[in-house]
Amino acid sequence: MKKIFIDGSKGTTGLRLFDRLSARTDIEIITLPEEFRKSPVARKEALNESDIAFLCLPDAESIEAVKMVENKNTVIIDTSTAHRTNDNWAYGFAELPNQEEKIRNSKRIANPGCHASGFIALVAPLVQQGIVSTNTILSSYSLTGYSGGGKKMIAEYESKDRPALFDAPRIYGLSQNHKHIPEMKKICGLKKEPLFSPIVAPYFEGMTTVVFLPATKIKGSIEDIKYIYKSLYTDGLVRFAENNDENGFLSAAAFSDRDDMEISVFGNEERITLVSRFDNLGKGASGSAIENMNIVMGLAKNAGLKTR
Fold it and tell me: Is the CATH code 3.30.360.10 the one for domain 114-280?
């Protein structure tokens, strides 16, 4: 039985991980008493005792935690931004070509960012197949529930005294320096950063990422794009779906409390809209992390996860 340790188990990602994993009988979760939860000595011991350790920490703390690991057999799955563009770490989006094998054979796995997951699922296959040039500057926005902002933002949105401006969606990342942009660029093989606008809305969880493609920016057709998605997303937590709108609408909350992702293509031959829908806490965080753990353990990718 594999021993699992969640370092940072009280954050939103850590809590969801514990919720999903605590129901399983094929693993043993190492837990620390509350008074030792932040103790470097206790954490180091737990990290080195574990077969697989999840890091649910801020970037700087994740980097320090990795330095604590002396057990060469311990697999680290880091949910922070710290190692996502590091070539020495496997990028944990298993549905990309050849990525599952890299994850399976790695001791260091960088879990993708939530917004980045939606963007990469849409864009990376099109760049790899030559539909989108590596020099293209893409335009994208991504709508998320407020749980994506962690405990502080959850408290702000759930406060009875929250500002009236919180009742409507709010754009952020206005400087075009959002922390997910580097991994979007690198993992998709783009030479230029995308124009990206994240948006937080007054609902708890669920995410929709949208990428716009004018015909002048692609080599191929809307049907070519659909074919690429249909061919690639056949096994795993990502799937392609057609005619899945809700009477002309798409809800960003449709995949709340789920761990899978749905890819769709809308528009026409002149203006194409690519859409991914998932849960920012699911395939955008803990669901993806558990999928990576399952791969390392040689299990079905969806073991212990909530999917349709």
Answer: yes
The Cα 193–Cα 137 span in angstroms is 7
* Active site residue ranges: 114
Alpha carbon distance 292, 289 (integer Å): 5
Query: pLDDT tens across 178-197, in order?
Result: 999 999 999 999 999 999 99
Q: Kindly tell me the sign of the dihedral angle through the C-alpha atoms of 230, 234, 236, 241.
A: positive
The CATH number given to 2-112+285-297 is 3.40.50.720
Indicate the SS3 state at residue 62: helix
Contact between residue 95 and residue 238 where contact means Cβ atoms under 8 Å apart: yes
Distance in angstroms (rounded) separating the CA atoms of residues 153 and 23: 28
Between CA 279 and CA 260 the distance in angstroms is 8
Q: What is the pTM of this model?
A: 0.96
Nearest Cα to Cα of residue 82 among 105, 62, 108, 104: 62
